Amino acid sequence: MERAHLLAVFFTLLLAIPAQADQGPLSLQVLPWNGFPAAFSLTFDDGDPSHLDVAVPELDQRGLKGTFFLIANQVQREEEWRKLPASGHEIANHTLDHKHAGELDKEGEKSQVAGAKAVLQKKFGVQVHTFAYPFVEITPGLKEWCQKTHLLARGGGGSDPVMVPSLGPDWMNVPSRTTRTALEPAVYDQWMDEGLKRGGWTVLMIHGLEGTTYGWEPITRVNFNHILDGLKERKVWVGTFRDVGAYYRAQRILEAVVPSGQGGRMTWNWKVPEGFPQGTKLKVKVPSTEGVALELRQGEKVLLPTSEGVYEVLFNKGEFRALPRPDEKASTK
Q1: CATH class of the domain defined by 37-246
Q2: Closest to 142 in 3D by CA, of 180, 95, 179, 184
Q3: Positive or negative, the Cα torsion across 98, 101, 106, 110?
């Protein structure tokens, strides 16, 4: 009986050892969509002057940001476009000349993607990170050049117009929904409600707005404002195509990292893709080792959490560490 009792104690202690070793911040959580329940991006094609006259003032009035896909060789009112990045809007690539994909040979595909990016960057003095396919015509050659030179590329509706975290993303063919003249406000409400319900990323492709002289499928100012006010009311993240996409790509990379170390002393390291937007921050939660408060650091900088225990990790650093602070008790939140 005494031997059986000793064996029972031994195996109890043996089983307890892995449980102790597994304690620690192994289940890092990145808050989806910058901590919001869903994300939306408003993208505008072709550099239509109505975007400057209608879209930008309405966006600015509400504190919202948009992405403007410009045709590099057809930019009008250049000085006005030049002011937008300082306000948080995005200047993006819609090729040199907006040609059909079938008109392009291999060299033409390169120039319409990489060449247009170079022209826009020189013209506006900003980094260009994203691309939109004219006529939503996606060929292997165009997609290959996008892969080499851009963070993201916007496509069309496809089989599912909402990008959700459970699906593997195609960064070079991000789905979108297209606004049209004949669509009623109730349709846009349905799109917004679906994106919110599914907790995904919805990209709107917008062309002409009220007052345009050439914009395709123009929508009224009333309908445009209905979309903007609906997004504000739903309290979702309305970010540029670049900013939402960069957050999501960074999230996928960080979540795949296996940290080194054990207990309350862990290190996360990852490779930052070339040309990744500077300043991309991820909101993360890191559970504490039982009874020990943690201190998160990037380099020598100590990261301070919010009252909800959320840290902002600068993705471009490529690393951060969690260290124990034995002099303090861990938060029970």
Answers
A1: alpha beta
A2: 95
A3: positive
